[in-house]
Amino acid sequence: MNRKALRATVVAAVLVVTSAALPATANEKVGVEEMLPVLGAPQVPGDRIPGGIDLDAIGGVRPETVRRLGSDDVAEYWVGRLGSSSTCLILHIAGGSEVTAAACGSITDFYNKGLALQAGESRNNPTRSAHAYLLPADVDATALSPMLTKVSSASDSTGPNLLSRQPQDAAPLQPTDLKRDKGNIFTFRPLSNVTGR
User: Fold this and answer.
1) What sign does the dihedral 10-25-188-165 (CA atoms) show?
2) Over the stretch 39-90, which tens digit does the pLDDT of each residue have?
3) How many helices (H) and strands (E) does the chain have?
4) Which parts of 31-128 are beta strand (E)?
5) Domain coordinates in residue numbering, the chain
6) Closest-CA residue to 144 (of 194, 92, 186, 197)
7) Radius of gyration (Cα) for the chain, nearest Å?
8) Exposure string for 89-108, b = 16+ CB within 10 A, e = fewer
9) With the C-alpha atoms ordered 156, 158, 161, 164, is the resulting torsion angle positive or negative?
10) Is the full-model pTM beyond 0.70?
11) What share of residues in the chain are helix, strand, coil (percent, to 5)?
12) Whole-angstrom Cα distance, residue 155 to residue 188?
């Protein structure tokens, strides 16, 4: 089977988590399990990355830290830790020229910006392109529907904040202010606004 692993040039905001609580802003301490509840759950067999995907090729995510987030019509998604202070959103598009990509970053960046990742087989085949956003669990993402679709969750503990966009969707995404559980504002910034496209 011909596999094409892409080490994605991460085109987006960044996510990450550590096992200790870190300052997400000057006034708050936010732990990994608060930001991404799935990371607080023990790994189960369904969380593991399929054989043939080289985690070292996408930055060295530790296999024992990987948790499956879910899937959409195009890709499967996981989150995993890179070292002790970073977490990565991983996507895999199976079949054809298989594509695996990851976006990694710090908890402060994730708290403030979330994480976005876009990867695909080729610009000539947009139906095999994945475009996903992972937002902190305390962000109410309902205002982004129907422009973005909640990814089918592997478990209830994932939360509603893994969202995807089909490449053929024509309506452009706009920066959007979203409410957090404690009343603060989270500004969603789509990939085109992050990368300057």
Assistant:
1) positive
2) 888 999 999 998 889 999 888 999 999 999 999 889 999 998 887 778 889 9
3) 3, 13
4) 67-71, 76-82, 86-93, 99-105, 115-120
5) 22-195
6) 186
7) 16
8) bbbbbbeeebbbbbbbbbbe
9) negative
10) yes
11) 20, 35, 45
12) 24
Q: What are phi and psi of 127, to 5 degrees?
A: -70, -10
SS3 45: helix
List, in sequence order, every beta strand (DSSP E) within the chain. 22-25, 28-30, 67-71, 76-82, 86-93, 99-105, 115-120, 129-134, 149-150, 152-153, 162-164, 176-179, 185-188
Interacting residues of 83 by C-beta distance below 8 A, sequence separation 6+:
60
Residues 16, 86: contact at Cβ < 8 Å? yes
b/e per residue 159-182 (b: at least 16 CB within 10 A): bebbbbbeeeeeeebeeeebeeee
Contact indicator for 7, 101 with CB cutoff of 8 Å: yes
Q: Tell me the residue type at 122.
A: S
Per residue in 139-158, pLDDT tens?
999 999 878 888 877 665 55
Question: Is the alpha carbon torsion for 40, 118, 107, 83 positive or negative?
Answer: positive
| Strands 162-164 and 152-153, sheet pairing | unpaired
Tokens of 172: 């452009």
